[in-house]
Amino acid sequence: MKTKSENIFTIFIKVLPDIFHGAPVHFVYMNIVALVYSVLWFSILPANNYMFDTIIKAANGQASVKYAIIAILIVFAILTIQHVFNGLNAYNNMYQYFKVYGYLHYRIHKKVDQLPAIKFEDPSIMDDINKSIKGSENAMLLVNIIMNMIFFYIPQLLFYSIYFYFLNPYLVLVVFLIFIPQAISSILQSKFHINLEQEVAPIRRELDNYDKSLTGIDFFKETRMLRAYGYFIKLYKDTQLLLNSKAYAVEKKIAMIRLYMALMTLTGYIGVLYILLQTVLSGAITIGSFGAIFISLSSLLSIIKEITFGSFNELSKNFGTVLNYKNFMNMNPTEKMAEQNIDFSKGIKISNVSFQYPNTNKKALNNISLHIHNKETIAIVGENGAGKSTLVRLLLGIYRPQSGSIIIGDIENTERNPYIPQNNISAVFQKFQKYALTLKENVTISDIKSDDNIIEPIQNAGLAVNSKDFPQGELTMLSREFGGTDLSGGQWQRVAIARGLFRKHDLIILDEPTAAIDPIEESSIFRTFRDISKNKIAVIVTHRLGSAKIADRIVVMDEGQIIEEGTHEALMRLNGKYAYMFNEQAKWYEHE
Ligand SMILES: Nc1ncnc2c1ncn2[C@@H]1O[C@H](COP(=O)(O)OP(=O)(O)OP(=O)(O)O)[C@@H](O)[C@H]1O
Fold first, then answer.
1. Is 121 in the pocket of ligand 1 (CB under 6 A)?
2. What is the ipTM for the molecules in this complex?
3. Which residues are in the ABC transporter domain (predicted)?
């Protein structure tokens, strides 16, 4: 948000170093070109002046025609060079824009990579990232517009004023007579636009929301299935009408103001012409000067428009996002921590761990203690929301507990680097990612340069790389959007499992990675998994208790706590929650 102490210049000073660093040489070069272009742009005024004077003199027989022709050629040459510089200027701006754009995006992505994972549990972080991306683009525009002002527009205004002053000091009034009405007009228009923007921004957000519900890729299937199109279209239409009515009302006001202001500018123009006429009649300037100044008036007007309004004003609506960019880049400086090598043979000790997500008032984990031994396979079971995935995230070191400790080997959770995943820990998440990359890249992404064989993890995950689904074998692109193929939910899950198995690990966690795979296949994957994980610590989260049986020990969670633990047989004997859930699930299969 824009604060009181921030204005366009303080923001400019803040973001200038970032924009400069994006392309330093080009930045300097671009501004030198802008200055030369400015001189060229202005020089048409004295050139026209000279041309008119010599033509008048030649027509009156006071000078040779040769001079008139030379004057015309000078004007022609200036106009030609002007066009060349115009192109050069546009090219430079574009070149610098792309270079700095890439640089700023790279910095934002790097920053995102360094943020503690817990930040991403706060939905506003996505907003912050988006705003900061938008803000970085606006920061670039802001700096370029101000630099253009400094090296192109303001020098021209100065050149004009100095030229007029030397022709006749009264002529400096010309600049003011054009400047003042134009400035008032610009300020009023911008005020109306900003007010309108503030008023319609929430309505526009609402409209975007309905639009997304109608056409967004994530929404459209459900919206269609629910036959909710009509409802959303009505909401969309009503909101669009409201938006239009607000915009029309303000645009009407703006049109009226423009009309009044145009009249004011014209009055200024008439004043200018009067002064020019007086100075010509008094013999203070030549008719040639009168003509040249008259032609330049539109140029002068557009310069003043740009200074007082122009892109500058358009940008003022977005100052807030430029600050968002700066604030985001200053967010949470990274804790520098070295990567440690964990001695997994000492197992994992979880003691009195509690954890609560940001912006919630309920503990997701409440005073959990558990000791996982070396080479042990643990299954974590429990109802939805019991805290299984949260415990997994803490084990992975993605989050830190608010109280209690998790010691893996000799290393305590607080000593673990929260930004860099630990060596030798692998995981397959419940909501795994489907990367639009080749099968090979999807599997080897944790160590893309590795030459390790991917056949084994793929086989262990039960993925059949047949020529129908994988026409290019391992190199098949797994995205239809990029000319490849798309896989079924179950095939994707196997790819994710292969990815987890491929990463070198002493500890592996499977957080319900088999929900889209049928129970028979799931048991087979888990059995293979148990065999290949014999010498490792393995944690499996699953809802299918039949699969949990393969574990050495089963941990039952409920409402953020561990309520039972033991082997399948021991838990069945206990006849508690686990036995109840197991028997309930078994009934399903018996009925079938
Ligand atoms: N990102 C989050 N922000 C806020 N609360 C969360 C978040 N993720 C989980 N929770 C809450 O924490 C509690 C534990 O959730 P968790 O996902 O760990 O349960 P789970 O046992 O893995 O559930 P499931 O079987 O449905 O995957 C739940 O009350 C849940 O609502």
1. yes
2. 0.96
3. 348-584
